[in-house]
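*** Fold description ***
***
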Amino acid sequence: MGVSGKAAGGSIRGAAAAQLGFDYQLDVSILAALQLLLISKAATRLILEPASEEDLEVDLEPNVPGRIESSATLAGGYKLVVQVKRSTGEPWSIDDFAALLKHGSDKPGGRRPALHHLNDPGTRYLLVTSADAKGVARGLLVEGFEEAPDMARFPASLRTILKRSPEGRVAIWGKMTEKQLASDIRELMSDLLHVPKVEQQALLEKLRAEAKRRTRTPQPGVWAREDLLATVRDHGGFLASLPSLEQFVPPANFDQRARLLNEKNAVVVRGPSGTGKTQAALKLCELARQRDGATEIVALGADDSPTNARKLIDKGPTLFYIDDPWGQYSLRTGHQDWTEQLPRMLARASPTHRFVITSRSDILRGAHVGAALDA
């Protein structure tokens, strides 16, 4: 299980493998921070355990999680401890997993075994790993930080090392490959935090630097919700608490736009440049999300294709916020796709599939959309 051991004298391959493991741990911490602190708001802070250069070698040892260990006290009143292991080996067996839980030392300065965390009945433990699980270990599989495993499928053999009602408190989030991890982070940035595409890589690099900084201190590093939100805002993202929306002054026709969105499930916010179209559109999105608490906001722009407004998996009510699809300052190459397809999408708008679109009036005329968007 895990990456093969380091070659004698240290090899580039071994060092590279260790670095990949460390980078993987950083990205899992970023996903946890975004999800738990900003999206579900299940916690107000995430704690990252310190790491050192020597800890990189841990990623080369079988059945040993990386030094970066995240923990958070969630809204349900329980503490969630997350350990991470990038693995290119076989799926986790229950014996592999038990060995991981027991790994550690009670000596001063050593890392206590994970099973010690579980002595507290108010603590849950989650292993995030790129590998799958096999056999009875599959009964521990979940697909999220806050998901609890099926208590009825808890492996009986773990009760020999976990004695304080461990059922439902021990889980594995498997098959979280680097590709899946990157996709999940990008999805949060795009669909829920509305970070512009041109800012997403810079935000990711900043978050990695922030996570690494918090593991380079003698004491556990705290990642607070306010700090994370400020970083997202600096890169163009927004949540309901965005200051500009809190201070939003609605224009005279704002109520009419809100009624149009409620009645016809689509509205086009048009006007000259600098008239507050974007703020009005974002406020409409926030009102929709606040109204039922379940609407997902998916942000699209001129660089996106109309096909991006067709969700492959229906996860509930969705509002597509489409910002200047024909271009912000001039008609972009390929704008005809939006001209052709957007009217068809709006004709199929429904309470569970709504649209808020912005466009400059002159750009809209130049796109030759005609009366198709005059609803």
The mean pLDDT is 82. The CA atoms of residues 191 and 298 lie 4 Å apart.
